């Protein structure tokens, strides 16, 4: 395959600096370096390291190599970039149309329907990309993270993306981090990108997988160990002989789902599997360059020999004894080995009849994934089995789909009456028009996705979704039974015979090489200065942004409680996806979903709060609009890991737009806390978690020392109860001087725009 490497000069530039920058970092740190440290220290905004940073404490400015955006988040990111006063992006950037395609009938019909419904948005993205020098991957081209792995990811690089699963590129040895759109705007505008220097978790993999076990089971096991917040603030680095035995796309799967443990990102050292993948995807020139600096593209040998001395936490997993897992329902860290599922399902009352099996998503839609699942599907055909569940497939890219069709993989699925959906996210992000979902029946589905929060796939709160590997999805869909263990159990075929499925057989890479007729890429204009980007003022899909107001310098007083959220409150609860995706480019319209999925701690219902101005029960957005109209500031109170999940900054922009001034919680998920800061909001945590219980529905809140807002200094909240009594609550924050400047200016973007005007 001929070379098709994008941005080769940029990659050469990164590698040319590696040696001197790694040596400077090693001198400052005074000991051998992990891979994560090498990539971080070689991407410092100020060049070579002049100090050693403190993990989990130091705020550091970085210079990422590239930016990637998916269509649902790109709209708001690019609307913000248009305000930044720049003529062209400062680093290679791409936007990918993959989220706005509803899965219903099948690829051809669904793609055309999406283009018909979303043409205004796609045209907007296309024109903005064309104007500002951004590559655009059109609808049907594929899922952003698979497309990035095939075309842009490279060992030792650093990228950010406006999607939490940007971390997928760690499978090709990158430090790739999910961010909000405002962070992407910083980098595209040629500014430094700030991150708290991460802690480091090492995962040593020994042995080699066999039988039904797959790379997916590694991260399902890790999720069970670390839970959904155990990786928060940390980079997970995988190493060991077991790591080298995994394919590149298998590594991508593991890194991808690291978002579900809250990890900043995950990564693997450069090895032979990455060489094979780069060559297979037409980037042999990157291999030549990487081989020259290969020692700098993995952790130092001393680190991997004695990991306890170099990582903050070390986990060891023997791939030889690892068994297939199912994680769920309703949370991606509830891990169950397949052999224990039958008993566990009965104990917990989980429905064991599997209604749907879904293969795809950015986590598991590679050629290898499809080939392993197809081998199970073909067995079912050959052995006379009748599939009990419905089956859906989302290939990861047009290149994967075209090649899989050429090689007969899709025929194996079609022979089982599977529906081949578009090369897009589809059901994984709630873009699934599932027949009967509105009846909200209790049911079970299995999928190879990454998240399984309540309502996520089909909008039905009673759908029990279990995460597993593509090959296990195939087996369980064929059996129609959640408790079926293909390692030990048999199935009855149409002739009444007992048959056993053989372990899956897959191909890491296609024997005949990848092929594609039209990969769906649109290169930007060389000179976009004459291109006009228009937004219809009457559009209900797109809305030009107005800057948020700067802080007036006074303490915030007389604030009311919008909602006190109980328990898990993810970005899906704060700003739902699914049908709401159509409004991702229109801040006012999408704000009508603000916190409608959160559980109100005072009535244990969602989207019902007391409007303290009228005494009436309102929906959350309605109450927020009433307070805003009356000039009354509001606060939101939440529980642990608030804002877990997607990187969507709408979950921070919506409360900002509707007058929420502060979000006060027990703890934050990393991306959401940053997004709040970027939008000029107060993201605060209870110094004493028990103070969450002091907050009453009809309280009034006064921030009595906000005028003294400073780094490393607590804020004091005066909580005035309805009976006149008061509580003084201490609040912690992680704002540094720069972030406090964002708050004072009204948002980080306001500062960028002011700087651009001043030049």
TrEMBL record:
Pfam families with a match to the protein in the record: Aconitase (PF00330), Aconitase_C (PF00694)
GO cellular component, one term: cytosol
Matches recorded under InterPro entries: Acnase/IPM_dHydase_lsu_aba_1/3, Acoase/IPM_deHydtase_lsu_aba, Aconitase/3IPM_dehydase_swvl, Aconitase/IPM_isomerase, Aconitase_4Fe-4S_BS, Aconitase_4Fe-4S_dom, Aconitase_dom2, Aconitase_mito-like
Catalytic activity: citrate = D-threo-isocitrate
PROSITE patterns linked: ACONITASE_1
Gene Ontology terms for molecular function: 4 iron, 4 sulfur cluster binding; aconitate hydratase activity; metal ion binding
Protein name: Aconitate hydratase A
GO BP annotations listed: tricarboxylic acid cycle
Highest taxon of the lineage: Bacteria
EC number, as in UniProt: 4.2.1.3
Cofactor: [4Fe-4S] cluster
Alphabetized UniProt keyword annotations: Iron, Iron-sulfur, Lyase, Metal-binding, Transit peptide, Tricarboxylic acid cycle
Naturally occurring in which organism (per UniProt): Jiulongibacter sediminis
Main enzyme class: lyase
SUPFAM superfamilies: Aconitase iron-sulfur domain (SSF53732), LeuD/IlvD-like (SSF52016)
């Amino acid at each position: 395959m001929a070379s098709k490497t994008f941005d080769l000069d940029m990659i050469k530039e990164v590698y040319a600096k590696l040696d001197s920058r790694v040596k400077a970092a090693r001198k400052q740190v005074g000991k051998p370096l992990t891979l994560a440290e090498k990539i971080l220290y070689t991407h410092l905004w100020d060049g070579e390291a002049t100090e050693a940073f403190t993990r989990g404490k130091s705020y550091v400015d970085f210079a990422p190599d590239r930016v990637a955006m998916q269509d649902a988040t790109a709209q708001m990111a690019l609307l913000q970039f248009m305000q930044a006063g720049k003529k062209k992006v400062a680093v290679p950037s791409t936007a990918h149309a993959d989220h706005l395609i509803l899965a219903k009938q099948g690829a051809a019909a669904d793609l055309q329907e999406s283009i018909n419904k979303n043409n205004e948005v796609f045209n907007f993205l296309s024109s903005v990309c064309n104007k500002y020098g951004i590559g655009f991957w059109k609808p049907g081209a594929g899922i952003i993270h698979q497309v990035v792995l095939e075309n842009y990811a490279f060992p030792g690089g650093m990228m950010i993306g406006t999607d939490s699963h940007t971390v997928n590129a760690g499978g090709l040895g990158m430090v790739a981090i999910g961010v909000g759109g405002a962070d992407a705007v910083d980098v595209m505008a040629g500014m430094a990108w700030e991150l708290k220097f991460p802690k480091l978790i090492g995962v040593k993999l020994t042995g080699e997988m066999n039988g039904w076990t797959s790379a997916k089971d590694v991260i399902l096991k890790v999720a069970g160990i670390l839970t959904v917040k155990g990786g928060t603030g940390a980079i997970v680095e995988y190493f060991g002989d077991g790591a080298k035995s995994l394919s590149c796309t298998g590594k991508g799967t593991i890194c991808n789902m690291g978002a579900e443990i809250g990890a900043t990102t995950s990564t693997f050292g450069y090895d032979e599997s990455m060489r094979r993948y780069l060559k297979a995807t037409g980037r042999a020139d990157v291999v030549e360059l990487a081989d020259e600096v290969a020692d700098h593209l993995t952790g130092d040998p001393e680190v991997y020999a004695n990991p306890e001395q170099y990582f903050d936490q070390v986990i060891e997993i023997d791939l030889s004894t690892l068994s297939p897992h199912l994680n769920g329902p309703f949370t991606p860290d509830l891990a169950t080995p397949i052999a224990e599922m039958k008993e566990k399902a009965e104990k917990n009352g989980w429905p064991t009849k599997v209604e749907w099996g879904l293969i795809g998503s950015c986590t598991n839609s590679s050629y290898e994934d499809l080939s392993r699942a197809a081998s199970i599907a073909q067995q079912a055909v050959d052995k006379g089995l009748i599939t009990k569940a419905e089956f859906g497939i989302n290939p990861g890219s047009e290149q994967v789909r075209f090649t899989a069709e050429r090689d007969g993989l899709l025929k194996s699925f079609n022979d089982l009456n599977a529906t081949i959906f578009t090369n897009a996210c589809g059901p994984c992000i709630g873009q699934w028009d599932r027949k009967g979902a509105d009846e909200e029946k209790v049911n079970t589905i299995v999928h190879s996705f990454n998240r399984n929060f309540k309502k996520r796939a089909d909008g039905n709160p009673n759908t029990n979704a279990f995460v597993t590997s593509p090959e296990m999805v195939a087996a369980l869909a064929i059996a129609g039974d959640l408790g079926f263990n293909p390692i030990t159990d048999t199935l009855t075929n149409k002739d009444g015979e007992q048959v056993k499925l053989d372990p899956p057989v897959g191909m890491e890479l296609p024997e005949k090489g990848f092929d594609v007729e039209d990969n769906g890429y649109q290169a930007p204009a060389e000179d976009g200065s004459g291109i006009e980007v228009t937004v219809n003022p009457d559009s209900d899909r797109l809305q030009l942004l107005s800057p948020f107001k700067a802080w007036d310098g006074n303490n915030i007083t007389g604030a009311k409680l919008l909602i006190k959220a109980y328990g898990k409150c993810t970005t899906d609860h704060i700003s739902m996806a699914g049908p709401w995706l159509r409004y991702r480019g229109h801040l006012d319209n999408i704000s009508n979903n603000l916190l409608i999925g959160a559980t109100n701690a005072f009535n244990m219902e969602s989207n019902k709060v007391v409007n303290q101005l009228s005494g009436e029960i309102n929906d959350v957005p309605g109450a927020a609009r009433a307070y805003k109209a009356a000039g009354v500031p509001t606060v939101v109170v939440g529980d642990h890991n608030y804002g877990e999940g997607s990187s969507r900054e709408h979950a921070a922009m919506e409360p900002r737009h509707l007058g929420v001034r502060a979000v006060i919680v027990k703890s934050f998920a990393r991306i959401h806390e940053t997004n709040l800061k970027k939008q000029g909001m107060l993201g605060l945590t209870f110094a004493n978690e028990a103070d969450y219980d002091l907050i009453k529905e009809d309280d009034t809140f006064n921030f009595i020392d906000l005028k003294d807002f400073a780094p490393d200094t607590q804020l004091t909240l005066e909580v005035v109860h309805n009976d006149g009594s008061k509580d003084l609550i201490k609040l912690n924050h992680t704002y540094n001087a720069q972030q406090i400047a964002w708050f004072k200016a009204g948002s980080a973007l306001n500062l960028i725009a002011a700087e651009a005007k001043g030049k």
